[in-house]
UniProtKB/TrEMBL annotation, chain A:
Keyword S-adenosyl-L-methionine recorded: no
Pfam families the UniProt entry points to: ABC_tran, oligo_HPY
Organism: freshwater metagenome
Sample GO molecular function, one term: ATP hydrolysis activity
InterPro entries xref list: AAA+_ATPase, ABC_Ni/Peptide_Import, ABC_transporter-like_ATP-bd, ABC_transporter-like_CS, Oligopep_ABC_C, P-loop_NTPase
Domain ABC transporter positions: 22-272
Identification of the protein by name: Unannotated protein
CDD domains reported for this sequence: ABC_NikE_OppD_transporters
Subcellular location per the Swiss-Prot or TrEMBL entry: Cell membrane
Keyword Transport among UniProt keywords: yes
Annotated keywords: ATP-binding, Cell membrane, Membrane, Nucleotide-binding, Transport
From TrEMBL, chain B:
Alphabetized SUPFAM superfamilies for the sequence: MetI-like (SSF161098)
GO cellular component: plasma membrane
Protein name, entry field: Unannotated protein
Record keywords, A-Z: Cell membrane, Membrane, Transmembrane, Transmembrane helix, Transport
Source organism per UniProt: freshwater metagenome
Subcellular location(s) of the protein: Cell membrane
InterPro entries from the UniProt entry: BPD_transp_1_N (IPR045621), MetI-like (IPR000515), MetI-like_sf (IPR035906)
Transmembrane segment boundaries: 9-30, 101-119, 140-162, 182-201, 238-263, 283-308
Main location: membrane
Residue span, ABC transmembrane type-1 domain: 95-305
Keyword NADP applies: no
A GO molecular-function annotation: dipeptide transmembrane transporter activity
Membrane topology according to the record: Multi-pass membrane protein
Length: 356, 315
């Protein structure tokens, strides 16, 4: 946590264009389903600075994966409706043609996917899966790209990379494959990396290593990272800011240290309470959030969390709270009619805290 | 690799032994007697007994089998009782015809079905996809003996584009007119393969395009065409390969309906003739030869599986 907050104050800005790398304004992503319109992302706005790491947390079905794929404009087009604006380095992603998107994908924006077991093509050699975007975007020839692939594999911590480039994915372990995925995503030194639950399917011990590799390379290349996770523990030590999503909306967003010092949304607190902690005595039942995540086709009236919230009042059940800045900190926004009093919450994180 | 080949070879020998036994005893279950055909009007009991002795048909069956298989192992496939032509000669003149038909029809079938399946899988339920799926379903329902009659009527008799039945010219004699006569039967054999290949590959491609690694490939900025050919086609082609193996095996001596109707002296044509004449040695030896070819084709297909998908171990 301390490392992240120091970074947020000290990271150097030495970029051509000033201003945020990514500007998302009132983004709505709607799918037409047999049951009706599904509002997966419902009016999300935020900025992402150059070099910044933003964590997006929420339960399954909170819209975080759709949000990250929307930013990338990688969603299948059928049955999809989008409005609002996603501005990346001055390019409006929502109206960009497929040709323009293809020049950005892999080169300027790239993605690390959730499941390394299914994200690599089983019949293509590792080396080729790394070099194909290099050759496409940087114009390297085969030899240069191969040398680069070996160097990338070294950087993500894969032993004997010269042999590994000739391997097929099934010859590598899950952790190794996710390192390869990171090497693929970072091959062309993109400005923005979207990491969608990059460690969820891995062993806890491997999770920390993968996140360390990602953080190290991010630092070296001065990239921005959006780290999507359902696990507050994963994002707590590795982000500058955290956005909490619920029912397709951002319900609280604040610098990481501020969020844990003064969380305002009861939902955020409930998420923290449901995170397992090392400081707890063993065999203590985990606190679960009562009820189920909201149905995105029929969102509850008022605050989407109100049916599960123990602080909810009549107002919460009828009116949607707007995302407004905290009185004492303009960078801390939350959407709640009955915010919690500022009491610091201690969090002992699961993976990575000892390793970083 | 060597272990893979070795294990296959052992299996191959076992399979071929079983087939030789089966072919030998099955043909001897057939009613009829070659001596009747050979002797014709001279069919007296004395002549018959003399001929049976000459052909070795008076010996017990197991002895006949051993004599035959011993000769085969030494490379001697025997002689036709009827025409006195050596069976190796029959095979060496008939098999190239089958081979040519197989190669022509399979090249055309793959050449049609792969691009069509790719175009259909790109937009499932699109106009092209619906049209080609429906057409292929209809084609699947047309038996080759109907198709050949319709095509001969249309292209040979009315339009005079291709020569009609009975105009077979050997390849060595005149390659151009040989190809000209072979295109019609090749088209008939192509139709069945094409529809199956198209349907299998289309379904597999649609499934593969849903995979995570395709989304990853898109997120690298690769073009749709590159993704289709480099990332989607290979992992989708296993059922295509398996069915190609079956189809090609089926066409070895299996094209006799087409060969018969167009009077092309292929292996199937010769085999059916020999069966009708109860020509034991020819039937046995041709069947064994066909079995060897089919086993070899499957051997190659098995090997190709390991090339297409590296996860299939060669051990």
């Amino acid at each position: 946590m301390t490392m992240a907050s120091e970074r947020s104050e000290n990271f150097p800005i030495h970029d051509e264009n000033p201003g945020p790398l990514l500007k998302v304004r009132d983004l709505r992503t709607t799918f037409t389903t047999p049951r009706g319109k599904l509002n997966a992302v419902d009016g999300v706005s935020f900025d992402l600075a150059r070099g910044e790491t933003l964590g997006i947390v929420g339960e399954s079905g909170s819209g975080k994966t759709v949000l990250s794929r929307s930013i990338m404009s990688l969603l299948p087009r059928s049955g999809l409706e989008q409005s609002g604006s996603i501005e990346f380095e001055g390019i409006e992603m929502l109206s960009a043609t497929p040709d323009v998107l293809r020049t950005l994908w892999g080169a300027k924006i790239s993605m690390v996917f959730q499941d390394p077991m299914t994200s690599l093509n089983p019949v293509v050699r590792i080396g080729r899966q790394i070099t194909e975007s290099l050759r496409l975007h940087t114009g390297m020839d085969k030899t240069e790209a191969n040398a680069m692939a070996v160097s990338l594999l070294t950087q993500v911590g894969i032993p004997s990379p010269e042999q590994r480039v000739r391997n097929y994915p099934h010859q590598l372990s899950g952790g190794m494959r996710q390192r390869v995925m990171i090497a693929i995503a970072l091959a062309c030194s993109p400005r923005l990396v979207l990491a969608d639950e990059p460690t969820t399917s891995l062993d806890v011990t491997v999770q920390a290593q993968i996140l360390d590799v990602l953080a190290k390379l991010q630092e070296e290349r001065h990239m921005s990272v959006i780290l999507v996770s359902h696990d507050l523990g994963v994002v707590a030590t590795r982000t500058d800011r955290i956005a909490v999503m619920y029912g397709g909306r951002i319900v609280e967003i604040a610098p990481t240290d501020r969020l844990f010092r003064a969380m305002a949304m009861p939902y955020t607190k409930a998420l923290v309470a449901s995170t397992p902690r090392l400081s707890q005595p063993s065999h203590v039942r985990l606190t679960a959030i009562e009820g189920r995540p909201p149905d995105l086709v029929h969102l509850p009236k008022g605050c989407a969390f109100s049916p599960r919230c123990s602080y909810a009042t009549d107002k919460c059940h009828s009116e949607v709270p707007p995302l407004t800045a905290s009185r004492d900190n303009a960078s801390h926004l939350f959407a709640c009619w009955n915010p919690l009093p500022s009491t610091p919450v201690a969090i002992t994180t699961t993976p990575g805290s000892s390793a970083s | 690799m060597t272990r893979f080949v070795l294990r296959r070879l052992i299996a191959l020998i076992a399979i071929l032994f079983c087939i030789s036994v089966g072919a030998f005893f099955l043909i001897h279950l057939l009613p009829g007697d070659p001596t009747v055909t050979i002797l014709g009007p001279n069919d007296t009991p004395e002549n018959r007994n003399a001929l049976l002795k000459e052909l070795g048909l008076n010996l017990p069956l197991w002895q006949q089998y051993l004599t035959w298989i011993w000769n085969v192992l030494q490379g001697n496939l025997g002689q036709s009782f009827i025409t006195h032509q050596s069976v190796s000669k029959i095979i060496s003149s008939a098999f190239p015809i089958d081979l040519e038909l197989i190669i022509l029809s399979q090249i055309m079938a793959l050449g049609f079905s792969i691009p069509l399946a790719i175009a259909s899988a790109r937009r499932p339920n699109g106009l092209l996809d619906r049209a080609s799926t429906t057409t292929s379903f209809g084609m699947l329902a047309i038996p080759p003996f109907i198709l050949i009659v319709v095509l001969v009527l249309l292209f040979s008799i009315h339009l005079h584009i291709f020569p009609g039945p009975g105009s077979y010219v050997p390849f060595q004699q005149d390659p151009i007119s040989n190809l000209h006569t072979m295109i019609l039967p090749a088209i008939v054999l192509m139709v069945g393969s094409t529809t199956i290949y198209f349907r299998l590959l289309r379904a597999d491609l649609i499934a593969t395009l849903q995979q995570d690694f395709i989304t990853v490939a898109r997120s690298k900025g690769l073009s749709d065409r590159y993704i289709m050919w480099r990332h989607a086609l290979r992992p989708s082609s296993l059922s295509l390969l398996a069915s190609a193996g079956l189809n090609i095996s089926g066409l070895v001596a299996g094209a006799f309906v087409v060969e018969y109707l167009l009077a092309i002296p292929g292996l199937g044509f010769e085999l059916v003739n020999s069966i009708q004449q109860v020509d034991y040695l020819s039937v046995q030896s041709i069947t064994l030869f066909v079995a060897v070819v089919i086993v070899l084709i499957n051997f190659i297909i098995d090997f190709l599986f390991t090339v297409v998908d590296p996860r299939i171990a060669r051990e």
